[in-house]
Amino acid sequence: MKQVHDLPALRDTLAKELPFSIQALESVKHQIKFNFKPPKEIYVSEDPKSSFVVIKEVAFEAAPNFTVYCKEADINTAGFELKDVIPWDQPWSLGGVPGYLLPILQEQLHKRGLEDCLELSDCWVFILEPHVTLPRMAIPPNYKIQHLAPNDVEFIDKMWKFRSDTSLPTLKAQANLGLAFGAIADGEVRSAFAAFSFGAVGALATSEAHRKMGLAQMVLAYGVQHLRSEDLIPFVFIEKYNKLSFDLFKKVGFTHTHNAFWLDWKC
After folding, report:
1. 8 Å CB contact between 259 and 99
2. What is the pLDDT along the chain (267 residues), one digit of tens a residue?
3. Contact predicate 47/34, CB 8 Å
4. Whose CA is closest to 240, among 106, 129, 120?
5. How many CB atoms neighbour CB 172 within 10 A?
6. Which residues lie below 8 Å from residue 8, measured CB to CB, with a gap of 6+?
7. Distance of alpha carbon 6 from alpha carbon 247, whole angstroms
8. Structural contact between residues 92 and 65, judged by C-beta atoms closer than 8 angstroms
9. Prediction pTM value
């Protein structure tokens, strides 16, 4: 594969391959818009007929996070295309993997005797289509729905399933970009979420005492409206056991478009 620098052209190509290309598309758009330093490493196949795109994401984690996209017709060349890009025998994670690509990735690990190092999350992918009208809700008295400052995202981090040594710096970085949103009352965050550098929204959290007030729905509607204003397409991965999140995102207007997998290194 070769590193690509004409990101607008790649963006336009990926936009034609929705919904399966949603993470690759939005990851490229985030790099264009926010100009991450150092920049993401973005690769395309040297074969002009191949659709393979690999993005080494911006992250604070020691283990790199990758976005991989290809059309189903191109999966037979996955082993060749990815062999020098993915560090198979070192910690990594892969996000937004279409189901048709999963067996090829699992085969690569099996060849190296590393299949037991794989932790797999089966997810629904929900996308907020551009034509969808967001719900209007009355904000409760004494509440404000707004962007969060970096110090405010500790609320999210404390409640996040994927909390780690690097999760708080990651969330603070997103807040600095204007990509963290919350409901605040009495000077305290009550509900919040963030959008990440690879495009997805997530880490939605609401304090126990302030649930069933519609705060999460209000914050989501506010935040995704901002993302839309930045010409970004909001999307989310929801693990298949999480019916509450499934229902919540549907209420805001998200549509379940397809399923995808997250692959995480656990050795």
Report:
1. yes
2. 999 999 999 999 999 999 999 999 999 999 999 999 889 999 999 999 999 999 999 776 668 899 999 999 999 999 899 988 998 888 889 999 999 999 989 998 888 888 888 899 999 999 999 999 999 999 999 999 999 999 999 999 999 888 888 889 999 999 999 999 999 999 999 999 999 999 999 999 999 889 888 999 999 999 999 999 999 999 999 999 999 999 999 999 999 999 999 998 877
3. no
4. 120
5. 20
6. 32
7. 39
8. yes
9. 0.93
Name the amino acid, one letter, at 79. G
Where does 143-232 sit in CATH, by number? 3.40.630.30
DSSP string, 90-150: S--EEEEEETTTHHHHHHHHHHTT-GGGEEEEEEEEEE--TTPPPP--PPPTTEEEEEPPG
Q: Using CA atoms, how far apart are residues 258 and 127, in angstroms rounded to an integer?
A: 9
Tokens standing for residue 224 = 């995704």
CA distance readout (Å), 140 to 145, 181, 218: 10, 17, 10
Can you tell me the distance from the alpha carbon of 265 to that of 250, in angstroms, rounded to the nearest whole number? 31
